[in-house]
Amino acid sequence: MTRRSSPLARFGKAVAVIALLAFTLFPIYFMLSTAFNSRAASGTDALVPTHWTFEHFTKAFTDGNFGTYMVNSAIVTVATVLISCGLALLGAVAMARFQFRMRTTVLITILIVQMLPAEALVIPLFLQMKDLRMLNSLAGLVLVYVAFSLPFAIWNLRGFVAAVPRELEEAAYLDGCGWWQMFRLVLLPLVWPGLVATSAFSFVMAWEEFTFARTFLNNEERMTVGIGLQHFFGQNVNDWGGLMAASTMVTIPVVIVFVLAQRRLGTGLVSGAVK
Amino acid sequence: MPTSRWRPWLLLAGPLLVIAGLLLYPIIRVTVLSFQRYGLKEVISGKPEFIGLDNYREAVSGSYLWKTVLPNTVVFAAVTVVGTVVLGTLVALLLQQLGPRLRALVIGSSLVAWALPAVTGTYVWVWVFDPDSGVVRRTLQSVGLLDPEGFNWFTERLSFYAIAALNVIHHGYPFIAITIFAGLSTVPEELHEAAKLDGASAWRRFWSVTMPLMRPVFAVVTILSTIWNFKVFAQIYLMPGGDGSNPEVFNLGVWSYVSSINQNKYGLGSAVAVLLTLVLLVITMIYVRALFKEDELQ
């Protein structure tokens, strides 16, 4: 790229970058500064903390059940990611590698169920879980999260599987590999980046899901972080320091996952759209 | 090549079973519910009664759907889709102009904004605009732009949705920016160089070179964010009044949820849910057509 920009253009770029960073980072900065501030109750005092403290973090664990919520969310999230990515990979291989009758029907079904709003399904799923006696169970929540992340995961992985050259697979057959061996030794390593991106998306979905968790869980011991945060709202006064400390802890795992998966996040969709 | 007729179905059995049981069956069930009288009594007895279109009549009668819920849903979706796509595109174009270090800084910070969960992000914006001690109130008062008695932004529909839009755009633009930036790298540099030599302005190069090549990417991100922003739920429900106490600020999703889960009017809630699903179905059809055109789904 040639970069012989004029001083005016450089000034404009600098202003754009600063404005963008200010908008992007302001809520995150404000969350952190409130979380570490012992005088968090007032907005402008929270903006520039003068009295640093860890008490909001420790109180979230000692006064509230925040530790339990984090453990529950971790269990639900790991189970969701493993099951949905495993199932999605099988589905993606079927869609990308086989010609079969009704293939287009299946593909369009997958695309359409992707748009189903949680709010439309929460009513029947609530009644369904009630019938199955799975309200208040983390397993029920995992089932629902797997269903919700599957369509997108299959769609996303399909592009990665299709990008693996068939010649590699054929070479593996010629070398005497069976289908599962080929899958394990050839396909799996090559679609790994796609699996990383897909797991990142289902991780985030399951970790921060609100609607189903709010509706299905009413036992303190079973709650996940998405709804656990509500406990920092009192009748008359809100514990902003505690809420922001808890929010920080909810955000950190997602940031870690996004940073780890960074280079893979946009490419899946682009490879799906541009061929 | 060892292919069997059953292998694809064997592979698809698990995913399709889950999708059928937990997405397709419930969507049929909610449609059936929408034609039934289904309240607390019927939940207990398990014997609902078919009442035809009564739930739909209740939903569309009067001015509530037309004057409050639909504008809240549609105008909000329109504003946030335009907002996220325009901002995302501008950021992607800016990223192209930056050196590697600044680029990493901008991508890194937008990843953090994207990673901020919808629930925690909403709480932060509620805290920023808190009517009692939020930073916006304190700041405006200290410069004399706000009366000492303050102002509750959350009770007015317009300011409520302005805050929600800020929240959704902040959370949504990084996905668009990163996806478009990844797509821009597929546009051959030579085309831009050639257009530059021919004297095309930056504006002209964007519309005549970048835009046509990037149309599929723009189509996908625009339609995806339209689908997402139509069904924004947690970001509204968690704001003061959005949980049911202020019907002025409901959108389709919140109205459906509050009717059924808070008020046990499952029939009415289901009818609203079906209406929301139909709107999204139309948008999804456009999405599927756009993909079919570009990709042939090979």
TrEMBL record, chain A:
Keyword terms of this UniProt record: Cell membrane, Membrane, Transmembrane, Transmembrane helix, Transport
GO BP annotations, alphabetical order: transmembrane transport
Pfam families linked: BPD_transp_1 (PF00528)
Membrane topology: Multi-pass membrane protein
Chain ranges passing through the membrane: 67-94, 106-127, 139-164, 185-207, 240-261
Any GO CC annotation of this UniProt entry: plasma membrane
Record localization: Cell membrane
Family in the record: Belongs to the binding-protein-dependent transport system permease family.
Name of the protein: Sugar ABC transporter permease
Species assigned in the record: Luteipulveratus halotolerans
Automatic annotation (TrEMBL), chain B:
Cellular component GO terms held in the UniProt record: plasma membrane
Location in or out of the cell: Cell membrane
Domain of life of the source: Bacteria
Membrane topology qualifier: Multi-pass membrane protein
Chief subcellular location: membrane
Key words of the record: Cell membrane, Membrane, Transmembrane, Transmembrane helix, Transport
UniProt-listed InterPro entries: MetI-like, MetI-like_sf, UgpAE/MalFG_permease
Domain ABC transmembrane type-1: 70-287
Membrane-crossing residue ranges in chain numbering: 9-28, 74-95, 102-128, 158-185, 206-230, 266-288
UniProt record similarity statement: Belongs to the binding-protein-dependent transport system permease family.
Family annotation (PANTHER family): BLL4140 PROTEIN, DIACETYLCHITOBIOSE UPTAKE SYSTEM PERMEASE PROTEIN DASB
Record protein name field: Sugar ABC transporter permease
The organism of origin for this protein: Luteipulveratus halotolerans
